[in-house]
Design a protein that fits this description.
Radius of gyration of chain B: 29 Å
Shape of chain B: flat
Helix content of chain B: 40-55%
Structural class of chain A: alpha+beta
Largest sheet of chain B: 6 strands, mixed
Number of helices of chain A: 20
Number of helices of chain B: 15
Order of helices and strands of chain B: EEEEEHEHHHHHHEHEEHEHEHEHHHH
Structural class of chain B: alpha/beta
Largest interface: A-B, 40 and 41 residues
Distance between the termini of chain B: 21 Å
Oligomer: heterodimer
Strand content of chain A: 15-25%
Strand order of the largest sheet of chain B: 3-4-5-2-1-6
Shape of chain A: globular
Distance between the termini of chain A: 60 Å
């Protein structure tokens, strides 16, 4: 028998993130994971980051997390999404070599002496004085973090073939149910799916549109040199479905487990399978298919956008109808997974279960989708378990300062009808929660851990310089006649700056790229500063006024949101839709704000309630 | 507003208590049991009283009969405002009404209700919606059949439905923007752009229809004003009295007789107007008169129908200034004075842009002129009503705010490529729109309603 401070069941993205942060507090950590599967494996698309998710990875990195480090080291294609749409919504996405990613995860974790990786199958979990986890041996711990992904009663579907398990290449973690039987799961199971994997050499790339790696994308980890690439870079390619492709799927509706009733779980609207696309948008035939390499050595590619649980022969047929994939050979067929999901309203904002002290849940088992969402939760659970053991204040990220905070609050305050994914639209404070200022946003949270690692020193230094440069912008005045202004302004633009102005005012001009402008200005003063710092300050200044305004509006809303309502009366009242009533009865909101957060509540209902809830 | 959270038993006369009438209705609301009034009723209130049934009895105080009355008991929540309500039909002498209310206030711990408090409780007890309250107010205080029908439309929620449709279209546009941030990879840039443009177009189209309905903004259709203007001694007060068929205004040959404006109600084709006689416009050192003149000019700017009276024998620079305003009707007075035709011609020569004028003899006015005037007013009213205007000030204000926001937003769209900033601007617009349907700042709405209007069923 071995005793740990913290035991983590599951070595996926949530599990390793929890272990990595907990180990920084000098606690003994055990990760119990299925034999034969590497840590931090990527069973779905081989990429990290994306719109909203890129922000999460940078938040994790600034908090001392692991994901950014691994993604940089395994990155084979870098892109900035929404590049032309403004700084606030720009997000980085990195295609990863999945073997390399897992290899790096193993390397980092095994180098930490306080973490023990146990590759055994869990037979039972129980709790007396402490948690007792039985495998072929017995382990005990004060805190237990459950990150079992899709393995709670997981079931795989490919056509009419069904088998239990959470993923294609490993067995079901049977027996996980002992203590977990006491845990309330959502009555509705969730479902997720993956596309078939294609043999790389059987694709005709000449017919596809190439998307090369962008050397201008910054690494996630703040201590990595921003543009360094750790391994060779590869391109992604874009293919498109056509009339024939969709026809194949529509002809085989009866064979689709999702449409013939075999799968009862709910999938995500934002991540539709190719069957969903075919039947939900009957008039549309052209859909993007992104051909993403799964690694430098691996001979498979991931065709993103055609996930399916159709029988094998149908998958062969529709894949080959796509231009460029006519000779494609499927190495692994697509499948859907159905699984149970923990009722996250039973969790506190630290992801600890409200009835079972010391038991935490994180990752896909909480009904989220995405590696980044899983890692974010893993970090919150791991950090809070550790902080609690250390007697330090808990870690709660505000939803107004981070996407992780948005996610945790959304998850714990509200039952979801479908797998939860982060979008920037979920945040009320999008202009502030950006990638460029993640170090500034996370600094005080990280500081509250009272740790003194290299990243802590870096953050402190970065922040001090940030304050100095922010003040410099407010206090330094530039004359309207200065040659400096003319260097970056056209004739017409300058009329808006026909007086002595501060640097801040210059940076707010809509026609100007604030980052370039601040660079030029600092140069003219002979100041040389960290480029990341200049970038953060310039963008912060540009948005300053807008952020202030949005905070004012938010203040008004908050007052309204705190208004108490009587959900029973609302659910009983005559003039709102049946669907809304059902949702209200299920969630039982106490305030107008909670009512608004319920998914699928119609504005008409809000209006009715607002008018009456006075 | 101190009654927002009050649970007092309140009382008020629901019918006109300012003058004597055959009967009056007094309402008491918010009591827990009829029993607490048993001392003042001849009928035994502790016995079974069936709700919504009329009983005849007598009101008594210390053995003395005050009045023969009928009463009806409405048991909450099945009552107008959800509370227990007792309605007394009493004789409508104002002294009698006062005496009965006084009895309940001094003996039975009732409190005089604040204006609108009965209806506020209906709102609080979720019996009616905010729009319905506004509609009720319009319905009860309507000065025309048009206002009456718009009040009804609000009460039944029709106008609210239009606001909801606008909000839905706004949400579609808003989501098109979110789509291009979070999902442009999935649907492609071009599709996202098209969706953005077309959704704004549908939203704007819907809004423009609504905005047309608030454009006659400069005058208040709930109490439209007809203003008489002119230089001193032009005959404004004579015309005023002539229209009212009454010697309401003091008329003299002394210029500057009317020093402040006078107003009286007149009804033209079923619509109630205010007819306003103003001080003659002239340069003066008299501070009271010059204040009167300032107020007269103000009235002119926001009136529904403006009339300029000119004595053609008088011609000063002030007339030139006055003529810069566009009048609905210009009348030349002193038709009876010899040389009128010549004077008129000279006037027209001097002010070639004066347009068509009428002439009237105010000493013996003929009724053709009155008909002409009434038809002019009514035609303008019908013209405005045909645009189906929105009458409520709060709604007009919000719709105008939305108009301003949309213009601003369009300008930002054309100059700003940062989509997060666009989204921010769109949020501001969204707040404006949700005010229209009452999602935001309901406190303000309520305050304005319950402090400005006396409303109730």
């Amino acid at each position: 028998m071995k005793i740990f401070d913290i035991l983590i069941i599951g070595g996926g993205h949530a599990g390793i993130e929890a272990a990595y942060i907990a180990s920084q507090f000098n606690l003994s950590v055990g990760i119990i994971t299925l034999p034969g599967v590497g840590l931090g494996s990527a069973p779905c698309n081989p990429s990290v980051g994306g719109v909203g998710k890129g922000q999460v990875v940078r938040e994790l990195d600034a908090l001392g997390g692991l994901m950014g480090i691994l993604a940089d080291r395994a990155g084979i294609q870098f892109r900035t999404l929404n590049d032309s749409k403004g700084f606030a919504v720009q997000s980085s996405r990195v295609q990863i070599d999945k073997e390399k990613y897992s290899f790096e995860a193993e390397k980092v974790i095994s180098s930490i002496s306080s973490i023990t990786v146990i590759r055994e199958k869990v037979i039972s979990i129980s709790k007396e004085e402490c948690f007792k986890v039985l495998t072929q041996s017995e382990y005990r711990s004060k805190k237990l973090i459950v990150t079992v992904g899709t393995f709670l009663n997981g079931k795989l579907h490919t056509g009419s073939d069904q088998k239990s398990g959470g993923r294609f290449d490993c067995e079901n973690s049977a027996g996980l149910e002992d203590l977990l039987k006491e845990i309330k799961t959502r009555p509705q199971r969730f479902k997720t799916g993956t596309p078939p994997r294609l043999k790389k050499s059987t694709i005709d790339y000449s017919k596809l549109e190439e998307q090369p790696s962008d050397p201008g994308v910054r690494n996630f980890h703040c201590l990595h040199s921003p543009f360094a690439r750790h391994i060779d870079q590869l391109s992604c390619y874009v293919a498109r479905t056509n009339h024939d492709t969709m026809d194949v799927i529509r002809r085989n509706k009866e064979k689709s487990p999702m449409f013939n009733g075999q799968i009862k779980g709910v999938g995500a609207r934002y991540c539709p399978s190719i069957e969903d696309k075919a039947f939900r948008y009957p008039d549309k035939h052209v859909h993007h298919v992104f051909i993403e390499p799964e690694g430098l050595e691996l001979d498979t590619v991931y065709p993103s956008g055609i996930s399916s649980s159709l029988p094998r022969d149908v998958q062969d047929e529709y894949v080959r109808s796509i231009e460029g994939l006519e000779r494609a050979v499927i190495e692994i067929y697509g499948y859907a997974v159905e699984y149970d999901v923990v009722d996250t309203t039973e969790l506190s904002i630290t992801l600890e279960h409200s009835q079972l002290d010391g038991l935490y849940f994180a990752g896909q088992v909480n009904g989220t989708s995405g590696y980044e969402e899983a890692a974010g939760q893993g970090f919150i659970a791991g950090a809070n378990a550790a902080l609690c053991l250390k007697g330090l204040p808990r870690l709660v990220l505000s939803r107004h300062e981070s996407y992780i905070g948005v996610m945790i609050e959304d998850l714990t305050s509200n039952v979801r009808d479908e797998p939860y994914r982060l979008f920037t639209a979920r945040s009320e404070n999008r202009l502030y929660i950006r990638e460029d200022n993640s170090l500034i946003r996370m600094r005080s949270y990280r500081a509250s851990f009272l740790l003194n690692l290299p990243i802590d020193t870096y953050l402190e230094e970065f922040f001090n310089q940030y304050v100095v440069l922010m003040n410099f912008c407010d206090e330094t005045m530039i004359s309207e006649n200065s040659e400096l202004l003319k260097t970056f302004a056209g004739e017409g633009d300058l009329q808006q700056l026909s007086r002595r102005v501060s640097v801040t005012e210059i940076l707010k001009q809509a026609w100007l790229n604030p980052v370039d402008a601040l660079g030029v200005i600092l140069n003219s003063f002979g100041l040389e500063l960290n480029y990341d710092l200049i970038r953060t300050v310039a963008i912060s200044k540009k948005y300053e006024g807008y952020i202030k305004r949005s905070e004012d509006q938010f203040e008004k809303l908050r007052k309204m949101d705190n208004t108490k309502i009587n959900w029973e009366e609302i659910a009983a009242s005559g003039n709102i839709s049946f669907e809304c009533k059902q949702r209200i009865s299920r969630i039982r909101p106490d305030t107008f704000g909670q009512l608004k957060l319920i998914e699928g509540i119609r504005p008409a209902t809000l209006a009715v309630v607002a008018a009456k809830a006075l | 507003m101190n009654f927002l959270h009050s649970d007092d038993t309140i009382i008020a006369c629901s019918t006109n208590a300012q003058s004597n009438a055959a009967m009056a209705v007094i309402r008491i609301s918010g009591f827990t049991s009829l029993n607490q009034f048993k001392d003042y009723f001849k009928k035994d209130l502790s016995g079974p009283i069936e709700p919504r049934k009329v009983y005849f009895t007598q009101l008594v105080l210390q053995g003395q009969v005050l009045d023969d009355i009928c009463f009806t008991y409405f048991e909450g929540p099945r009552s107008y405002n959800g509370e227990n309500i007792l309605e007394l039909s009493v004789h409508g002498n104002t002294l009698n009404i006062d005496r009965i209310i006084d009895l309940f206030v001094s003996q039975a711990s009732c409190r005089m209700s604040f204006p609108g408090e009965f209806t506020y409780r209906a709102l609080r007890n979720k019996k009616i919606s905010l729009s319905q309250v506004e509609g009720l107010d319009l319905f009860l205080n309507a000065n025309s059949t048009y206002a009456l029908s718009q009040g009804q439309s609000l009460l039944s929620g029709n106008l609210h439905e239009i606001y909801n449709e606008l909000y839905q279209l706004f949400l579609v546009h808003k989501s098109s923007l979110e789509l291009s941030i979070d999902f442009s990879d999935d649907i492609g840039e071009e599709a996202a752009r098209n969706y953005f443009t077309s959704s704004f177009h549908s939203f704007k189209k819907k809004f423009d229809i609504l905005f047309k309905r608030v454009q006659p903004m400069e005058h208040n259709l709930l109490s439209p004003e007809i203003v008489l203007t002119g230089l001193p001694n032009a005959g404004k007060s004579s015309f005023f009295n002539f229209i009212l068929s009454d010697d309401r205004a003091i008329v003299s040959s002394h210029p500057g007789t009317t020093r402040d404006y006078l107003s009286e109600s007149i009804v033209i084709d079923g619509v109630k107007y205010k007819l306003i006689d103003t001080a003659g416009i002239r340069h003066t050192v008299d501070s009271i008169e010059s204040e009167g003149i300032r107020r007269s000019k103000e009235k002119l700017l926001c009136c529904f129908y403006s009339i300029l009276l000119i004595n053609p024998f008088q011609s000063t620079d002030e007339l030139a200034t006055l003529l810069e305003h566009k009048f609905d009707l210009i009348l030349l007075t002193h038709l009876d004075v010899p040389g009128f035709m010549e004077a008129r011609r000279l006037l027209e020569l001097r002010y070639p842009n004066i347009g068509p004028t009428g002439a009237v003899n105010l000493l013996s006015p003929d009724s053709d002129w009155e008909d002409h005037f009434r038809a002019g007013v009514n035609n303008k009213y019908l013209g405005v009503i045909s645009l189906n205007p929105i009458l409520l000030d709060r709604h007009k204000q919000v719709i105008s705010d939305i108009y301003g926001q949309i213009k601003h937003y369009q300008q930002v769209v054309s100059s700003e490529s940062d989509i997060a900033i666009l989204s921010q601007e769109l949020n501001t617009l969204g707040h404006c729109i949700s005010e229209l349907i009452g999602i935001i700042s309901p406190d303000q709405v309520l305050n304005s309603i319950f402090s400005n209007f006396c409303i109730g069923k």
